[in-house]
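Trying the structure run again after the queue cleared.
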Amino acid sequence: MATKLRSMRKVMPRKDSMDSIQQSKRRNGDNRAYDVLMQAQQHWFNMQKFRENRERCKRYCYGDQWKDVVTVDGKTLTEEEYIKEQGNIPLKNNLIRRLVRNVLGVYRNQSKEPTCTARDREEQKIGETMSTVLQYNMQQNRMNELYARSMEEFLISGLIVHRKWFGWRNEKLDCWTDYVQPNNFFVDANMRDFRGWDVSCIGEIHDISFQSLCSQFAETPNDYNNLATIYSGARDAERVVSYYNSFGMPQLKNLSFLLPTEHNLCRVIEVWRKESKPRYRCHDPNNGSVYKIDIEDYHEMVELENASRIERGTQFKMDIEDIPLIKATWFIDDYWYFYFLSPFGDILKEGETPFAHKGNPYVFKAYPFIDGEIHSFVADVIDQQRYTNRLITMYDWIMRSSAKGMLLFPEENLPEHMSLEDVAEEWSRYNGILAIRTKGTDRMPQQISTNNTNIGIDNLLNLQLKFFEDISGVNGALQGKPGYSGTSGSLYAQQTQNATTSLSDLLESFGDFVMNAAYMDVKNIQQYYDSKRVFNITGRKGALTIYDPDRIRDAEFDLSITESTLTPAYRQIANDFIMQLWQSGQITLQEMLENGYFPFSDQLLQAINSRQQEQIQQMVGGQNTLPMPQPPQGQPPAQQSA
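Done. Tokens:
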């Protein structure tokens, strides 16, 4: 009796089962993107609470502060509608906006910028070159304004996201930075690391026009026709629902992830996910490099290379132990893989990360991110803002509902020649006089005036304003308010410093985001700037720099946040120091103008260079008869001797 043969696929896993991409292709075929799309959708739904909190904080920041929903007598309506139903006006005094502007002012006044320092001190000149190139790239992307608006987003929502990429924009091929709207962003809900190092899935939803869609993903006329076919129904809610129901998928209740915000736009879901595959990690002792190779490259890059080295070492009579052989270790590589998907699960584009830093293009920062939760700076003072608005509205309510201008007039005192209408008119008239009978008493004429009742609402308002400053840490000194009478200048400066200290954690967290973004910019510059370029930073003297990719590509840099050299205070200090060097004769006039920050330096340098060129031409022609210019009176002796 013949033994039944069992398929090797059932006996043991296939060799490519360790490759998550190949396994997905084998199991799901053309439908393999549905798992990726559904995973991204789940992560986006998990951030629904964050989006609701962000919307609420944004409303309070920009003055729409009566839209919270309440239930009164079984009826659900907004606070604004309820107050209007009572015949009152929902008043507000927007303190949060002033608070956000003050913190933004503190950030703007810091005037800091990222600076590169080479880890190898012998390559410090390369670090200075990279700092100049980084500042040029920041000017190209208008990063000062982008960081200020990102800081405002950080205060409102507690989450900021930037996307780094390389390509064409405004007819220029360069490294670019895009601001990512947090409502369109999703990230792994299981992430708990404050630094974001444990993220395994991240992405963004894009709503773009069909022309932009084709410019990014159509490389042939067939690609254009396929995109037109896909998106002819991808913007129709009924077709999307029926399409997913035809595959036996559960009823879709929320289509906000799959449908664009506007009917004339096309939705593209960008997903970056960690995938795995077997690879070799190689160490080459010949040059100390460590790198990864695919399984199929092992024979050529390791075995053949080692055989070649053994052959060459034998020719030079080297011992086998002394020949530097490549050592390869098998391991499962965890790498980033990207997908661009349509709402139907079509893969518009996919591939392994193209970046040399081997990561995804997103830089994000969540604050404070305790247990995966985000709590914004604005959310801390919403209760104080609500109570302040409530007190103001209550004060207005009491003032309008109290008796004002009401006259209690006894009928027996009504003059014979006047009616009640005449009495009311005389009563309300300026300096009006009303004659009444007092039945023979000796009562003297009397001036009548009334005051509204003070129930202490103004004291409660002052208390809430004090709470507002205590909770936010932004007191009157930081807001620029004048000090009280008798307050010393040192005490006022100390109060300002204390208020800044209370914001240090927030500002340093944002500074960490700036450093991470700058580090990714440096890596992209090293990768994509593949030819020599000349850079000049606007507003900075002596910043003409030549970028050589052969020298900078493999250098490692350490990034730090330092004071900007473009601030007036820094320029004044630099000019004073350079003037002292020039007066002591340590530098020449030309060196002073090249390294100083003087508004007339360019014109003077041009005049000096023109004069030097004329002198050289006359010396070459044998006509060195032009008298040398004499130094002005009071020139330092060292300069005169020079």
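The radius of gyration is 37 Å. Worth checking whether this holds up in the mutant runs.
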